[in-house]
Amino acid sequence: MASKPEKNLETFPNPFINRDYHIHMEIPEFTCLCPKTGQPDFATLILDYVPDKKCIELKSLKLYIWSYRNDGVFHEAVTNLILDDLIAVLKPRYIRLIARFYVRGGIFTNIIVDHRKKGWMSKSMIPIGELSGQLNFRE
Q1: What is the CATH number of domain 21-116?
Q2: Cα separation of 113 and 14, whole Å?
C-alpha cells in the first residue's frame, strides 16, 4: 500500500532523557506552492533539536513534510507553521528550523526560526549550527 501525505506527526520516547544531545536532519525535497502565482517553491529544510521526553518519528515527519506539496503558503508562514507543529508534539528543550528556498525571481530566501524551553540551559557543549552539509555518498 502506498503512503499518503498527512499532517499527523508521531513521536517515540527519548531513549536518553537524562542527556542533552543534538539531532540534526536535512530535508532537501520540501515543496509548497506560491500563494500568489501557484508555481511550486522548493526548499531544503534543516532541523536541529535537543529532545526532552520525545523524539520525532522519521516516516511521519516525511509524510508531514510531503503534505505541504499542494498548499499555497508564503515561505515565512510555512516555516513558522512547521516549527509550531513540531514544538506542539515534541515539547523539545531546544529546536531550530532553517528553510532555504531556492531562487525565485533572482532572490534566495532563508527563514530561520527557533524555540527554547523556558528555563532550559544546555548542560554540555552542543555545537548547534556547526554541522556542514549532509553527504549522501562516500568519497
Answers
A1: 3.30.1130.10
A2: 23
